[in-house]
Amino acid sequence: MKQNLPILLSLLALPAFAEGTRELDSHEHGVGELNIAMEGKTIAMELHAPGADIVGFEYAATSDEDRAAIENAVATLAKPLDLFSFPDAAKCTVTRASAELEAEEDHDEHAKHDDHDDHDDHAEHDDHEDHAKHDDHDDHNDHDDHAEEASHTEFHAEYVLNCDNPDAINKIDFAYFEAFPNALELEVQIVSSAGAKAFEVERDAPTLDLRGMF
User: Fold this and answer.
1) What does DSSP assign to residue 20?
2) What is the pLDDT of residues 91-145, one digit of tens each?
3) Enclosing H/E stretch for 131
4) For the chain, which has fewer Cβ within 10 Å, the N-terminal or C-terminal residue?
5) Could you give phi then psi for residue 57, rounded to 5 degrees?
6) Whole-prediction pTM value?
7) Cα R_g (the chain), whole angstroms
8) How far apart are CA 157 and CA 160, in angstroms?
């Protein structure tokens, strides 16, 4: 299984997946992404969902209630078979599961870069009052932009399942929508020996028909 995992994760990076992958800074509230790759009896899954879908907010946790909501969400996301139900006949078990809340990756780098530039500009034109005023204006805009970027957070989860009878996988039921009331849709991309295919699973129709996929 450990030998298969890198192969499965590399499948998740194929163009078939990359074309439909949402960037963190342009994610759409209500819409998450689930990538699935299967090889033999092993299934690798990767979930990305906006923070607003999972806990109802995307700002940094500032209260005990916020922190508790995040902890509860991570604990729920770490139980994939409670969220994505495979047929009992497939005899699937979880061999690996992880979940976390993450922020936009290059926000800190962008902030540091801007801070460095502002420092250099200020050093070069320290005696120009008009430029100082201009810097203040830019700093204010930068602050607003950074605050907006920082709000773009999402939950990320990775799973590996072992299914003793993968031929029995003809559907997935998405209890995910019951667990997270703000989630409206998951963009699902699947790759298997039968090829790659994309689906949209919505709250109103939370079952994905996989006949012919595995």
Assistant:
1) T
2) 999 999 999 998 764 344 333 334 444 444 444 444 445 544 444 544 444 444 4
3) helix 129-150
4) N
5) -155, 165
6) 0.71
7) 21
8) 10
